[in-house]
Write a structure and sequence with these properties.
CATH architecture of the largest domain: 3-Layer(aba) Sandwich
Shape: globular
Radius of gyration: 28 Å
Strand content: 5-15%
CATH class of the largest domain: Alpha Beta
Order of helices and strands: HHHHHHHHHEEEHEEHEHHHEHEEEHHH
Structural class: alpha/beta
Number of strands: 10
CATH topology of the largest domain: Rossmann fold
Length: about 475
């Protein structure tokens, strides 16, 4: 498609036609107006604002919400936007502006390739969204062809929008209504010693609306407990940990040993150790100097040099790194690197120790050895919270388990917190992997029981127990 700014000129009417209708043909313009009118009424039937229909890209996302295909709608709106950019402005000025020597013919070919690729992806996600619409409206699958072919896509939009015979099976807001039906927990009592989390919600703004990532998570973890954090992909495990340590603050009250983590963050930052999945160490440094640098960063400024060195020696002894203290980091084995990464955070002697998949890349024996060491740390009175994707091989070392799950609105919720044995009884499963499968959505290979367990746990909390 010829660029609108090929010759340095710009025509507003051409731009509007390209963005809204894809062509200056009156057939496409009339069809486009009817299409938007039909979508306006469809959005209203689904409980959305009708005017979303006149906003390019946004309307594709809102239509996906009507179809119950919100994730697909996000990608569809992005690729629609890319398609508008490439079709409207093209890339022919590229050679002149950058001086790369690209000819007009090569640039136009590149534009065509991009448009073709974007078009294919857009069609794929459009089919997914339309399939959802067909299910919501309970009509025959042959409607698909009318929706996919422009300019006749105005026909199904007008019929479904203006004919009272066609009604969606549910409204977009019904999801929130179903969410409200889920039982809510009461707040956890603040402990003088231990971690107390009362998280009301953690939200972000994505694609024209506020999205709730986490909601209604309350628990109190005593000192000396080693806790397993479980949940399927997207359940909010990392978001939850970031909320606890104050990296991404939520609408919450997080108390560690009676002190508010958010209000006194600078004071409490030395009390929390967080070990991410990725290792961030310089390969050319020795083990000793890596830990010494960590001590300078993580220990309070009033700690003397002699005290820092003593703490480094102590931590190396705890994690079995003394024999390799003078070795370069790049020469360490995988298990030694993991222990060094953990040691860097443990150097400040934190009261709360959080680890995100510390056993990734380790074999069973090395992973077991690492978790035994973490168990010893918890036994000194620390709170240790761990994410691992292979929990059953070390489950005997944990005291408690937290299970996060996505509810019907795809919001991370607390499905369980308590002892390992009580978790087995509560979920009716012996293995932790089976518990995760039970709360995962069906389209993710799970049993789709998240709402059931979230509600059951909340109701059990109200009467004094989770089992």
């Amino acid at each position: 498609m010829e660029s609108l700014i090929l010759n340095g000129s710009f025509d507003l009417w051409d731009f509007i036609c390209e963005v809204y209708f894809g062509s200056k043909s009156w057939i496409y313009i009339i069809s486009g107006v009817l299409y938007m009118a039909g979508l306006w009424k469809m959005f209203e039937k689904s409980g959305l604002k009708g005017w979303w229909a006149v906003i390019p890209c946004a309307r594709e996302y809102q239509l996906a919400r009507c179809a119950g295909r919100e994730p697909e709608g996000r990608l569809l709106s992005v690729f629609t936007f890319i398609g508008i950019l490439t079709a409207t402005f093209g890339m022919t000025p590229y050679a002149a502006l950058t001086g790369t020597g690209m000819t007009k013919e090569v640039a136009q070919t590149l534009v065509l390739i991009i448009e073709f690729a974007v078009g294919i992806v857009t069609i794929i996600y459009s089919i997914r969204v339309i399939t959802g619409l067909i299910e919501v409206y309970g009509v025959k699958k042959r409607w698909m062809w009318l929706w996919l072919l422009s300019p006749i896509d105005a026909i199904p939009a007008m019929i479904w929008g203006f004919n009272p015979k066609y009604q969606p099976a549910w409204k977009v807001e019904d999801i929130k209504a179903e969410l409200e039906k889920l039982a809510h927990q009461g707040s956890a009592d603040v402990m003088d010693e231990g971690l107390t989390v009362n998280l009301r919600d953690r939200t972000v703004t994505e694609f024209f609306q506020k999205k709730v990532l986490l909601r209604d998570i309350h628990m109190a973890i005593p000192q000396g407990h080693m806790v397993l954090l479980l949940g399927g992909s997207g359940a909010g495990k990392t978001t939850y940990l970031n909320a606890i340590n104050g990296y991404e603050k939520a609408h919450a009250e997080v108390m560690l040993n009676g002190t508010n983590m958010y209000k006194q963050y600078k004071k409490m930052q030395y009390e929390v150790g967080f070990v991410p999945q990725s290792e961030m160490m310089r390969g050319k440094d020795t083990v000793y100097y890596t830990l010494l640098d960590a001590a300078k960063l993580r220990l309070p400024q009033d700690v003397s040099a002699a005290q820092r060195k003593a703490r480094v020696d102590e931590v190396m002894e705890i994690f079995g790194l003394t024999p390799v203290k003078n070795n370069l980091v790049e020469k360490l084995s995988g298990g030694q690197k993991k222990r060094l990464s953990i040691s860097m955070e443990f150097i400040s002697n934190p009261s709360l120790f959080i680890l995100d998949e510390p056993d990734s890349g380790l074999d069973g024996v090395m992973a077991r050895e690492l978790f035994v060491q973490l168990r010893k740390i918890a036994d000194t009175g620390k709170i240790v919270i761990v994410i691992t994707h292979t929990p059953d091989r070390v489950i005997d070392l944990f005291d408690d388990v937290i299970v996060l799950a996505k509810d019907s609105a795809r919001t991370g919720r607390l499905a369980y917190y308590g002892s390992i044995e009580d978790a087995r009884k509560f979920f009716g499963r012996d293995r932790m992997e089976q518990i995760v499968k039970s709360v995962n959505r069906k389209e993710e290979g799970g049993d789709g029981l998240a709402d059931e367990f979230v509600t059951r746990y909340a109701e059990a909390q109200k009467v004094g127990g989770a089992a």
